Amino acid sequence: MSLIQILVIVSFAATLAYASYTDFIRLEISNKASLFISVLFLPSAVMADIPFAAIGMHYLYGVAFLVAGAALFAFGLIGGGDVKLLAAVAIWFELTDLGQLVILVVLLGGGLALLMLVAQKKPGLARLLGSPPWLDIKEGRKQPIPYGIAISLATIIMMEHLPILPQSLQNLFNS
Question: What pLDDT does residue 168 have?
Fold first, then answer.
């Protein structure tokens, strides 16, 4: 694995961490973070010798996720930043892994929803976590969930499935 490949993977993970942090603190995910993740896949795929037709398919997965996410956004089920981040992350995975990624995002998002319910009963928990806006629960108010955290965690958990990783690194994840 080359130094450039390591830098790409570290940059990918660091950008996910940044997106999670801003979503946690402000319920916002920067468009630049999602764009960076999307663009970063191209040199990663080229270095991993992924054929250009397959790279195009990966970007098509991202477009499909963006379109489906836009529908969910239109119904108020997910935030716009979450949609863009999930679409950007979808580019990095094979089609066969996207279902597992979505299931993991939903489960981790459910965990965040449970945390919100606990925070309603235990106000000290919100203070302990730095009083992020998404834990500012008001009676009868629909409260957004920072799905960027769930998306980033799910992606990191599933990193071993990234097609850009050399086989030697994938074997390390599996041992």
Answer: 47
Task: Report whether pLDDT(175) > 70.
Answer: no
64 CA to centre of own chain: 16
The single-letter code of the amino acid at 137 is I
Within 13 A of 91's CA, how many CA atoms are on the CB side? 26
How many other CB atoms are there within 10 angstroms of residue 150's CB atom? 24
Cα angle value 52/56/58 (rounded, 5°)? 115
pTM: predicted TM-score of the whole model, two decimal places: 0.87
32 contacts: CB under 8 Å, gap ≥ 6: none
In 3D space, the residue among 78, 60, 58 whose CA is nearest the CA of residue 69 turns out to be 78
Mapped onto helix, strand or coil, the DSSP state of residue 64 is helix
Contact 59, 91 (CB under 8 A): yes
| DSSP symbol at 134 | G
